[in-house]
Write a structure and sequence with these properties.
Length: 283
């Protein structure tokens, strides 16, 4: 704002003390806050809300990555699922686990999923993993968070315990260098904040490069990831007696997550829960 010069002699202007502020419109404004080392991260965190956007599914203009109609249409319906592997189960019946988990119980104890892996949800996972669309990671995290607040067995009093620590399924070094990021870690970061659960992005490491699970027949997938994961020496004592949550984008046969759970329980983890965006259905 331009100020008119005074009509009468005035005392020389004195410098305002640090932290001083001027009134605008009759109300004092807050003192400017110093820009700390995290100012850029805070600015970038608000960028999606400040910039024009469109729905990742239907393309409708708006500020949200997923518009309200698409959210209602695709992510509010709730299946009755096996509490261990999250496979859809018949509405009737009292058993909490599917026949496959009763016959051959996995090493993990529970699985929380946001949706099934079919159109259009599969496009979100593919666009993140192979298209590098990192704006989708917070969206997938939000949908997993919403699923964690739902009852896995509608109409019952079953409540799944939440983990005390989160960790992503690790990528091998070659694939990480090729892709430039680990999609599981990118989902785990915002999910950790939403759930208020600490995240250890290096709790697990992949000891050997493996073939892409999606390129293998079902029977070969468990062999492909056998002995593929380990805990670094510094992390070996961090999981003893702990409930650990493992974050991933897609669960197909569960072989990868089962191998991770085997490693964690070998080092004393009390319980392992998977937190996954999409669950592949049997064909």
């Amino acid at each position: 704002m331009d100020l008119k010069p005074p009509t009468s002699p005035a005392k020389p202007a004195q410098a305002k003390p640090a932290g001083a502020y001027r009134a605008v419109g009759g109300k004092p404004s807050k003192p400017a806050q110093p820009a700390g080392p995290g100012w850029l991260q805070r600015l970038l965190a608000h960028m999606p809300q400040l910039l024009p956007s469109s729905c990742a599914l239907c393309g409708a203009a708006g500020r949200e990555t997923l518009c309200a109609p698409c959210h209602k249409r695709f992510y509010t319906r709730q299946h009755r699922r096996c509490i261990q592997c999250a496979m859809p189960m018949p509405v009737t019946g009292k058993e909490l686990r599917c026949g496959a988990c009763l016959k051959d119980r996995p090493a993990f104890d529970a699985t929380i999923v946001a949706t099934d892996y079919f159109a259009p949800s599969d496009q979100l996972a593919l666009a993140l993993k192979f298209g590098g669309d990192l704006r989708l990671a917070p969206l997938l995290a939000r949908l997993i968070f919403d699923a964690s607040r739902r009852n896995p067995v509608p109409g019952s009093d079953v409540q799944l315990a939440m983990p005390a620590l989160l960790a992503p399924v690790p990528l091998g070094l070659a694939r990480l260098q090729e892709r430039g990021f680990n999609q599981a870690l990118e989902i785990a970061k915002p999910l950790s904040r939403m759930l208020d659960i600490p995240l250890n992005g290096r709790l697990l490491e992949r000891k050997k490069e493996t073939q892409a699970q999606s390129a293998l027949p079902v029977g070969a997938r468990a062999r492909n990831v056998r002995s593929a994961f380990a805990l670094p020496f510094a992390a070996m004592d961090q999981v003893r007696g702990l409930h650990v949550g493992i974050v991933d984008d897609v669960m197909t046969t569960g072989a990868t997550l089962n191998e991770v759970a085997i490693v964690l329980k070998r080092h004393g983890a009390r319980r392992v829960t998977n937190l996954v965006f999409a669950r592949t259905l049997p064909t």
